């Protein structure tokens, strides 16, 4: 239904249609959210928001642009305040074509002389000749394409001090010219003359703007034939007051703490801007690997016993500081830099130490009796966002460089593990691997893009037989995540799961025919599982 039709329907369905003045898209959204029926694209508000007087200083295009902004920002119909029509009858014809084509529900033109000034500005308010203005109304009605486009004739006779008789005479003339409604304007402190006018003129629905007679209640309007009430400038005036108070408070206190509690939250701003929809659209349509990839960091376990010297407080290893910055912070920084922001963490041991992290955290209370694999799967099972997306699992004691992520994100494997040739100098080789092809030994490449299948992985592999070690970073495509979940749940059902850590599960998948690719790298990562590795990390990370 177009907006003119919506407005016409509201006029049938409701006793009084309540319309609020605004000057931009945000105002239009707030009005819609508060349950009003329409938006008045107010000349006063629009000109004030440009910092100029309401005196036809702006042009029709300035007003039209804002009316369109308000129209697009909400589903409410917009009635545009078009002053005197910005000139003579030809200007009115042009504006009706423009406004209607842009989906504006209706317009209001007033019977004053161009350039007009706001009705509440003191001084002479010059009225247009009745016939000339009736011609504008007739032209507007003859120009509109749809029968529903709504044209309001605004009578300024009471404002200009010409009296009731003149107001009624004009109302009759504008009704004869084809107006859909008349707006009868008054600057009196009481609604008496409005009430009198309404009793004397019944040919058309009436529109009122009770700015100066604020006690006039909506309840009194239907019996007077008033079908539209416009609260014309209250958004503008309330925001000016609020802005002044905020500025004064900041200026006085020289900081933000007191003012922060009094103003709206940023999340409300984001909500009004439609950020939720933005995220939804990204998830649905933005086919970038980054947006569609989750990160899980399992950090539930106890710190390794070989890290005693460097970890006298016995912190979870990912919270160890390497030159003033924790391993977790360093890794989050790399992830953020690569737009990988869907990060899930599983904590267990000393989980309160993670409270300051604004990540999606799953607490694994039973961490002492479960494995890292259980922590990974707890995150997968707990967060529905992990469904239908690929996944990078990063062990919490690994430091890594951006290039490794680039390598993962540009690969098209179903499941892959980042692997490097065995490095004997830093000790500890838990996660050894036998891959189909031996590594390049000359150390001149950072990564290799050849295909290399993993044949064996596990803690019990003999070091002389292994050609690679696992770097603690693995990748699962959307399909790969489903397979991981299936295998894990099957093992859980068969009660065999206790014998499986992450590596054993991968071996189990290989044994059952799943291809697991090795993504070969040559450095660019570091594990921190013993004091020697910790000291080394301190040397290389600033
Ligand atoms: C406006 O909002 O611009 C109006 C209504 O025309 S009033 O300011 O009351 O004249
Ligand atoms: Mg106006």
Structure notes:
The chain is α/β, with parallel strands linked by helices. The protein has two domains: 3-232, TIM Barrel; 279-540, Alpha-Beta Complex (Spore Coat Polysaccharide Biosynthesis Protein SpsA, Chain A). Helix content is 38%, strand content 18%. It has helices at residues 3-13, 25-33, 43-49, 60-73, 89-101, 130-143, 157-160, 163-177, 192-200, 234-253, 257-260, 266-273, 275-285, 327-337, 372-382, 402-409, 478-493, 502-511, 531-540; strands at residues 17-22, 38-41, 78-81, 106-110, 150-155, 181-184, 206-208, 226-231, 293-299, 321-322, 325-326, 343-347, 360-363, 390-394, 398-400, 415-421, 432-435, 454-458, 468-476, 517-521, 525-527. The strands form four sheets. Strands 9, 12, 13, 14, 16, 17, 18, 19 and 20 form a nine-stranded mixed beta sheet that branches. Strand 1, helix 2 and strand 2 (38-41) form a beta-alpha-beta unit. Helix 6 packs parallel to helix 8 (163-177). The longest helix is centred in the middle third of the chain and has 20 residues, at 234-253. The protein is elongated and about 110 Å long. The model has no long low-confidence stretch (mean pLDDT 92).
